[in-house]
Amino acid sequence: MTKSKNVIILNSPKDLPNWKFTVRTALQAKGLWDVVASQAVPPSTSVKAVKALEAKQQQVMNVIVECIGENQLAHIHNLPCDPHLAFNHLVEANSDQGIDAISNLWDTFHTLCLTSNLTMADHVGAFHDVADCLEHEFDDKPFPSSH
Hints:
- This is DUF4219 domain-containing protein.
- The chain is mainly α.
- The chain is 55% helix and 0% strand.
- The chain has helices spanning 16-29, 33-37, 47-66, 83-93, 99-111, 120-137.
- It folds into two domains: 13-93, no CATH class; 99-137.
C-alpha cells in the first residue's frame, strides 16, 4: 500500500506517531473523529439513528483500513466493525509494549551469542536484561510441573 492523501500508512511501530496524527486529522476534517475518540452510542434507539451511526462507523473503518499496511490487517480483521476498538488495537499493537516490541525482544534473546570480544559476565548480563524486560511485560508464571 502507498501513501494516501497525506495520510501516513501504518506499517510498523516507527510509523505510529505520524499515523495517529494524520488519521486523526483526516477524520476530523470529515467530522468523523468522534466515532474513534469515544465508544459510539447512538443518540437514540431509533432505526434511523442506529443506521446513521453504523454508516459513520463504516466510513471510519474504511479510512483506517486504507491507512494501514497489509501486515497490520491481522490486528483488526477479526474485530467487529468498531472504529474505536480497531484504532486502539492498532495503537496498542504498534506501541512500545505491543506485539512487535515483544517480537523484537524475542529476536534479541534468540540471537544472543557469546563472541570473542565479549566477556562472559557481559554475555550473561545481556540475558538478564532480556529476562528483566520479559518479567516487566508479563507477570504470568509457568505452570507448576507435576512429576
